[in-house]
Amino acid sequence: MLETLPIDLLLQRPRNLAYHNLCEKAILPSTIKSFLGLGLNFCFKPTSTTPLYNIQIERFRKQFNTRILFANAPELEKTDLFVPDQGWEPPPPLNTTITNRTSQFTNFLEKKFRTAIKTHSNLLAPQLTALQWLKSHPEITIFSADKKTWALPH
Question: Do the Cβ atoms of 128 and 121 come closer than 8 Å?
Answer without folding.
Answer: yes
